[in-house]
Amino acid sequence: YESGIGIHNAGMLRKDRNLSEDLFKLGSTKVLISTATLAWGVNLPAYCVIIKGTEFYDPSQGKPVDIGILDIQQIFGRAGRPQFDTNGEAVIITSLAKMQQFIGMLMNQTPIESSLLKSLQDSINAEIANGSITSIDEGVSWLKYSFLEQRLSKNPLNYQSKPEEIAGDPGHR
């Protein structure tokens, strides 16, 4: 079909998420509505990214909290990837009271690093329970598409790895 709208969230079966991703990559769906999981965990570029709302419920605090600036930068980083577009757009929709706070945070250059190691076991167990990972090969593939893998190759010392360990890994791209 010529155009369409797709959805993507962690509650979907892996095959359905893959289908949503593939249709978006092919241009069959022009708009992909997703939870933060797409922006955090899947390498799927877009011309325009819109964040609607800057709070999410944090169960550890028992209340809604603001999205961190590193998460916003990660999500915005999906817009206008150099290998796909010459430019991109990112929009944040938040309350007027919080707008200056987010503008100030976005103006400061903060390096983005992965925090997946803090909850790697829980994340992998959740993917297994969800049916997204059903084999070791799928687990390795899931990890290779993570932001952790991207940052590990660029800044191994941040993750207590030595550059030569990464370079000597035959599975590393």
Can you lay out the helices and strands and say which pair or pack?
Blueprint: E1 5-8, H1 14-26, E2 31-34, H2 36-41, E3 48-52, E4 55-58, E5 63-66, H3 69-76, E6 89-93, H4 96-107, H5 120-130, H6 136-144, H7 147-154, H8 163-167
Parallel strand pairs: 1-2, 3-6
Antiparallel strand pairs: 4-5
Kindly describe this structure.
The chain is of the alpha/beta class and 173 residues long. It is built from eight helices and six strands; from the N terminus they run E-H-E-H-E-E-E-H-E-H-H-H-H-H. The strands form three sheets. The protein has a two-stranded parallel sheet. Strand 4 (55-58) and strand 5 (63-66) form a beta hairpin. It is globular, with a radius of gyration of 17 Å. The relative contact order is 0.11. The mean pLDDT is 82.
What are the salient characteristics of this protein?
single chain, 173 residues, alpha/beta, two-stranded parallel ribbon, 6 strands
**N- to C-terminal distance:** 35 Å
Number of helices: 8
Characterize the overall form: globular
Coarse structural class: alpha/beta
Helix content: 40-55%
Largest sheet: 2 strands, parallel
Short description:
The protein is an alpha/beta fold.
